[in-house]
Amino acid sequence: MLSLSVASPSNFRISRTPPFPFPKSSFSGLRISHVCTVASPSLSLSKTVVMMAKREEELKEIRAKTTEEINEEIVDLKGELFMLRLQKSARNEFKSSEFRRMRKRVPFLELTLMWIEMLDSVSYITTYS
Question: What is the pTM assigned to this prediction?
Answer without folding.
Answer: 0.55
